[in-house]
Design brief:
Mean pLDDT: 90
Distance between the termini: 16 Å
Order of helices and strands: HEHEHEHEHEHEEHEHHEHH
CATH architecture of the largest domain: 3-Layer(aba) Sandwich
CATH class of the largest domain: Alpha Beta
Number of domains: 2
Low-confidence stretches: 227-232
Number of helices: 11
Radius of gyration: 19 Å
Number of strands: 9
CATH superfamily of the largest domain: Aspartate/ornithine carbamoyltransferase
Helix content: 25-40%
Largest sheet: 5 strands, parallel
Length: 308
């Protein structure tokens, strides 16, 4: 397989296992390139990419922008807070205006679930979802699975626990889809108020005890509490949450096996994870950041190839 089966990257749900493997193989090549003294390749030299971020983002936006520049694409950055959207312009009008400037690819983050799917039906450019509400965040799931493969030798058969605010997390849903397609077992862990109802129907295990989840898993992916998406209180206090679900070095050292620790960022140190754990040998958090650039390069390269 040399080409993706999809025209847009809207969610992991739309990808086949072969698509994911192709993205990983392509990312391997780009990872070699970005570790060379000259880190640029002319792969997207004739492509113009618009980064449309209708929601605040630092890591994802910088990672995409760096990936685009490494591929020699022309890049347009758009922030909704300083745009006509704040004056009442609709999403489709905003994008059509940008496309009239002859943009080939749109990387979009939006607070509304399904915004990227909606856009893909109405405009001609290739759409790449950089996170839509509580729905999906496909490139994060791809870089997480790629990092697991790199750190542990493979994804098939691995037991991965996703711990924290599952209810408001687009990372959790994309990770579940991606890991299952690659043959991993998935467990979600957190307070019952932060676990979506009927999530077992996705084929995942549910656990409310952090220690039991850690004893079960090979990899623990720690998620932060998404306060910006919460309109009510889901637990009594941060202190109580961190006492029950905060990952400390003492807990890790008391479990009789090595566990790979991940975090999609940004980290709330001292809440879901202590600095000792985040900076320890258990952690592959910085590897995830590096792999994010290679994975995003691979996705944009393969989607641009699809348009040829």
């Amino acid at each position: 397989m040399t080409q993706l089966s999809v025209k847009h990257l809207l969610g992991i749900k739309d990808l086949k296992e072969e698509d994911i493997q192709l993205i990983f193989e392509t990312a391997d090549n780009f990872k070699t390139i970005i570790n060379r003294p000259i880190k640029k390749v002319p792969s997207l030299r004739d492509i113009t990419v618009a980064n449309l971020f209708f929601e605040n983002s630092t890591r994802t936006r910088i990672s995409f922008e760096l990936a685009q520049k490494r591929l020699s694409a022309d890049v347009i950055n758009f922030s909704s807070s300083s745009s006509s959207v704040s004056k009442g312009e609709t999403l489709i009008d905003t994008v059509r205006n940008i496309l009239s400037m002859k943009v080939d690819m749109v990387v979009m983050r939006h607070p509304s679930p399904g915004a990227c799917v909606f856009l893909a039906k109405h405009i001609d450019a290739t759409i790449l979802n950089a996170g839509d509400g509580t729905h999906e965040h496909p490139t994060q799931a791809l870089l997480d699975a790629y990092s697991i493969k790199e750190a542990t030798g493979g994804v098939t058969g691995k037991k991965v626990a996703i711990i924290g605010d599952i209810l408001h997390s687009r990372v959790a849903l994309s990770n579940i889809y991606c890991l299952q397609k690659l043959g991993a077992e998935v467990m979600v862990c957190g307070p019952s108020t932060l676990i979506p109802r009927h999530i077992e129907q996705l084929g995942v295990k549910v656990e409310h005890d952090l220690r039991k989840a850690l004893e079960w898993c090979d990899v623990a992916n720690m998620l932060r509490i998404q306060f910006e998406r919460q309109d009510i209180k889901y637990f009594p206090s941060l202190r109580e949450y961190s006492m029950q679900y905060g990952l400390t070095l003492d807990i890790l050292n008391s479990i009789d096996k090595d566990i790979t620790i991940m975090h999609p960022g940004p980290i709330n140190r001292g809440v879901e994870i202590t600095s000792e754990v985040a900076d320890s040998d258990y952690s592959i958090i910085l590897d995830q950041v590096e792999n994010g650039v290679a994975i995003r390069m691979a996705c944009m390269f393969l989607l641009a190839k699809h348009k040829e």
